[in-house]
Design goal:
mainly alpha; 21 helices; 75% helix
Length: 499
């Protein structure tokens, strides 16, 4: 009996020794496994690609797309209201052109400032602030007592729109690389909706209530949209570049939850960028050539786009187009024996022609997406500018009203497609540390083109249609060459975090 107890005690002691020998090894192995998991890291780019496309991106696309509607309404309002203010204040051609120029001057001055603030303090703040600013001053425009007050208030609207345009950067930074070439061109749909809304408002409201009520009603979408901005988070890429890792993680977790996806294993690790919003990066050795060529490309893109918009409005308002089957309304020219005829409001047929030309901005979106995915961004801009040059010169051909409308339709399609590709390329080519500033510089240079366009399309057009159309065609050809010489192709490339 004693021997049995002794044997059990020896066995128990032996078993305990074995456990003590094995336990440290097991703990070490488990600890090693946990350390491996802790050491695993991912970047914002990894997270964006892993989460993929889902419900969050649909919400982002709708809300930020709606901001494009408002932006388009503010800019396209100029084409609709020009005949009305010309009549009310007895304006000369150069005074009408100055209205558009002052809007673009406000945009140009505030474009770089908006980009700098967005890179330093966040994209969301700039977009929201620009939205409220532009809506407020647009409403004030409807109460303008004189021509001087009108152009001042419209320049303030342009300053706000410069902030709203940073929404494209905010949107692009959340979209996975493989979806950008498909989703970003669709922004043209919202711009077209905004353009058509302001034309329809002009058609329905201006003849009865006047242009002031048209502007007041056009502000309504802005007020409604302000309340939807709370559903859009700050860019995770910006938060990481600013060193706010926790905010970036929370944003990515919320997006993953909405998309019913998960983040990559490990922890978010990406170095903060000390030099954010620095113009030296834009003109450094890595981006100098790209920046200079892009600034020119943006200037010509805007020059061509607003030239097509304001030029078509001028041709219709003053009946300068050469139409072989012109109706009674289009046979009355803008000059009479007793001098300049100030009051020539748009006829219903003119509004309809502008509406049809607006549809051109989305008609060729499938072709735009195909070009982006097949030939890339650089070649798309090169081809589109060459086609735009040809279409500008074809507007001088004496033809039927149907063919003239078709030409306007195609021209608006091509210049809109090019503008969209330029936006996409700019958002992709610059790193997060200067993406908004790069966009701000580009949009500011684009407004130089927008400032020049009215004086060509609205002043020179009255003297000679061919002389007014030629600068647009020549600029498009030169810009096409510049686009071909861009050193970087961004098709399928991940967004850079730093230079």
């Amino acid at each position: 009996m004693g021997d049995g107890i002794k044997t059990q005690l020896v066995s128990a002691i032996h078993l305990q020794e074995v456990e003590l020998q094995e336990t440290p090894a097991d703990k070490q192995q488990g600890s090693k496994k946990n350390n491996n998991e802790a050491d695993e890291t991912f970047t914002v780019e990894d997270a964006v690609e892993t989460i993929g496309f889902g419900r969050f991106h649909v919400l982002l696309f709708v809300i930020m797309g709606s901001s494009n509607i408002v932006e388009a309404m503010e800019i396209m309002l100029l084409a609709v209201v020009s005949p009305e203010i010309r009549c009310e204040w007895r304006l000369d051609d150069w005074q009408v052109a100055l209205v558009s120029t002052m809007v673009f001057l406000g945009f140009m001055v505030c474009g770089v400032l908006a980009g700098y603030i967005a890179d330093r303090y966040g994209r969301w703040k700039v977009v929201f602030g620009g939205f409220v600013w532009s809506a407020y001053f647009s409403l004030l425009t409807s109460f303008a007592p004189s021509y001087g007050w009108f152009i001042f208030l419209r320049s303030m609207v342009g300053c706000g729109v410069a902030g709203v345009s940073q929404g494209f950067v905010l949107k692009a930074e959340f979209i996975p690389a493989r979806y950008r070439a498909f989703l970003l061109p669709l922004a043209s749909i919202f711009w077209m909706i905004g353009s058509m809304l302001i034309i329809i408002l002009g058609m329905l409201v201006v003849p009865t209530l006047g242009w002031r009520w048209m502007i007041r009603l056009s502000v309504t979408p802005s007020v409604l949209l302000i309340f939807l901005f709370k559903f859009i988070p700050e860019s995770a890429r910006y938060n990481v570049s600013a060193g706010n890792i926790q905010a970036a993680v929370e944003t990515l977790q919320n997006i993953a939850k909405m998309n019913r996806a998960s983040l990559p294993p490990g922890r978010l690790l990406e170095p903060a960028v000390n030099e954010r919003g620095s113009w030296r990066i834009l003109l450094g050795s890595s981006f100098r050539r790209t920046s200079l060529l892009l600034w020119f490309s943006w200037m010509v893109a805007s020059f061509a786009y607003y030239g097509s918009v304001l030029g078509s409005s001028e041709l219709l308002e003053k009946n300068l187009l050469c139409v072989t089957d012109a109706d009674r309304e289009h046979q009355v020219k803008h000059r009479h024996e007793d001098g300049l005829c100030y009051c020539i409001p748009f006829a219903q047929s003119d509004y309809q022609t502008l509406l049809i030309s607006c549809l051109g901005e989305v008609a060729l979106i499938p072709l735009n997406i195909c070009l982006l995915n097949v030939v890339g961004r650089k070649m798309s801009m090169t081809v589109l500018q060459l086609v735009a040059a040809v279409l500008f010169m074809m507007l001088n051909i004496c033809t039927t009203m149907f063919f003239f409308t078709a030409l306007l339709f195609l021209l608006r399609s091509v210049v809109s497609m090019n503008f969209n590709v330029v936006y996409i390329y700019t958002a992709e080519v610059y790193p997060t540390s200067v993406r908004s500033l790069g966009m701000g510089f580009c949009t500011s240079f684009s407004r130089i083109g927008g400032m020049i366009a009215p004086f060509i399309a609205q002043v020179l057009m009255s003297q000679s249609v061919i002389l007014a159309l030629s600068p647009f065609a020549v600029a498009a050809v030169v810009c096409s060459l510049g686009n071909f010489l861009l050193p970087i192709e961004t098709k399928g490339r991940a967004l850079l975090q730093s230079s």
